[in-house]
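Course assignment 3, question 2. Fill in each field.
Student: A.L.
Task: Predict the tertiary structure for the chain below.
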Amino acid sequence: MPSRADMSLLAAQPVVLITGISAAGKSTVAERLASRFESGVHVKGDVFRRMVVAGRQEMTSSPSAEAWRQLRLRYRLGAATADTFHAAGFAVVVQDVVIGAVLTEYVEAIRSRPLVVVVLAPDPAVVAAREASREKVAYRHGPDGIADLDAALRAETPRIGLWLDTSDHEPDRTVDEIIRCGLTEGRVS
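Answer field:
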């Protein structure tokens, strides 16, 4: 039975932005969190990237100006989609890889409130193990790509929202922690 504190996030009809590096558990956690609300939506940022079928520029360690433009477009589309679902009465969980100063841009693009930001930050070795066990390949350059992206997350991403080391968490434990702490530790104004 959820506690009174747990019910506050569930009753608040928030927008929750979940980020972290690839294979940090964002998709699984976002889906499970969205399903806990009476009316919940899971917005997957990668869907917007895959919509570009010709001329897509992928983010790399040295991204082109066009890759940055497309990434920012993806974030604006994610924010607008979240706001549209929220205005229609849904709690919304948005998940995407948002690393560095662009996290602030993404947060500013989401107009709906309350807004909760959650950064999943498991140990890079845990991410490497998760990556090895899944069909989807995020790191084409092996563990160095994981370590580099994790270093960028920790050094360049603003410390806003709720940061969780989920190295030893099962997905439902992470969801429970977001529900328990989200409105207090993860809420942004």
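Instructor remarks: Confidence is low (pLDDT under 50) at residues 139-143. The chain has one domain: 4-188.
Grade: pending
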